[in-house]
């Protein structure tokens, strides 16, 4: 179905990567939207053509209430009073994903989840290419979906955040997957965790094949007959992880698929990511030999439990992509060494409940260096093992004086980086730079 945008008053909110991709999408159609950014000096201002009207420094603008269609960037909350008012006036508010969904004719694999999205989306893209597809990867991963419309493609793999799903209504994916759901971004949802959960599960609404984590209590889902449902996670699922005789094996309906000894990745969370990738690949009917070969040789992506250095018995691990409490828990579980864990924790906690880590901290040989906006608050979870340090650099200087052979230094902040960095990559890159200086 082709949508006609001519003659409509169109407004784009946000001048980040998403906003600019939306602007270019309309300009190619010969349509001139208006655009607003909250920053007074957005870095992409130079990319705005002279003929485009823009406003800076404040979102509360009359243009919002005069529009027919608003495209909202994921960084802007859908629950702003002025946007609620606009909806009540009948103004359509959508995401760039919704614009994309209206244009595409090739199959889509849509992937969301609190953790592991980028890893699984990258695995699937590699497998699809090995299987002969011209696959394109985009979305929350940092490559806007609308830019994929310009590529020669026969399969789209899109990583989706809950923020993108909030304003997406007609996404008809061939396969939709939720990897896991745990507390994250609760500060963005007025009704808390249940609202976040409901937003995530909207990915299944118009999907053909739905892949579901049996460990997530998604009781409100209706497992109806007009969709195909595939499960993973527990031993009662279609796909699961079996531990027998000191071996960890990936299984499909009692049949062995892969022994984890044969793969480069380690840690239960990674085995789960591989398991889901196999489930998606089987649903797509990718040749199993291409699937297994790709997964055996897949190594950790940057900033995701990435070992930066192992020297003098000290291991330095960069898990800067850890932006929620559950990802820190996963990282702590993946450490096998017997020495002290020196954990760098901190940033903007997004109102999440970090007390779930208390029992972990109490049972581990650990020292916690809490930094950033919520560092003081985080240091109170386990006072006797924690210290507050203003920022990452000061924490690393302190660690360099205290670290001993056998220790693991783990940057797994569990928080958003935006209080002190422009993104998690910048935070991880500073950590890597500091390691080089220290060692």
UniProtKB/TrEMBL annotation:
Enzyme nomenclature, EC number: 6.3.2.9
InterPro entries in UniProt: Mur-like_cat_sf, Mur_ligase_C, Mur_ligase_C_dom_sf, Mur_ligase_cen, MurD
Domain Mur ligase C-terminal: 303-413
Pfam family, any one: Mur_ligase_M
Keyword Transmembrane: yes
Binding sites annotated in the UniProt record for ATP: 113-119
Annotated GO biological process: cell division; cell wall organization; peptidoglycan biosynthetic process; regulation of cell shape
Reaction catalyzed: UDP-N-acetyl-alpha-D-muramoyl-L-alanine + D-glutamate + ATP = UDP-N-acetyl-alpha-D-muramoyl-L-alanyl-D-glutamate + ADP + phosphate + H(+)
Compartment annotation: Cytoplasm
Molecular function via GO: ATP binding; UDP-N-acetylmuramoylalanine-D-glutamate ligase activity
Superkingdom to which the source organism belongs: Bacteria
GO cellular component, one term: cytoplasm
Residue ranges of domain Mur ligase central in the record: 111-280
NCBIfam families: murD (TIGR01087)
Membership in a protein family: Belongs to the MurCDEF family.
Stated role: Cell wall formation. Catalyzes the addition of glutamate to the nucleotide precursor UDP-N-acetylmuramoyl-L-alanine (UMA).
Protein name per its UniProtKB record: UDP-N-acetylmuramoylalanine--D-glutamate ligase
Gene designation per UniProt: murD
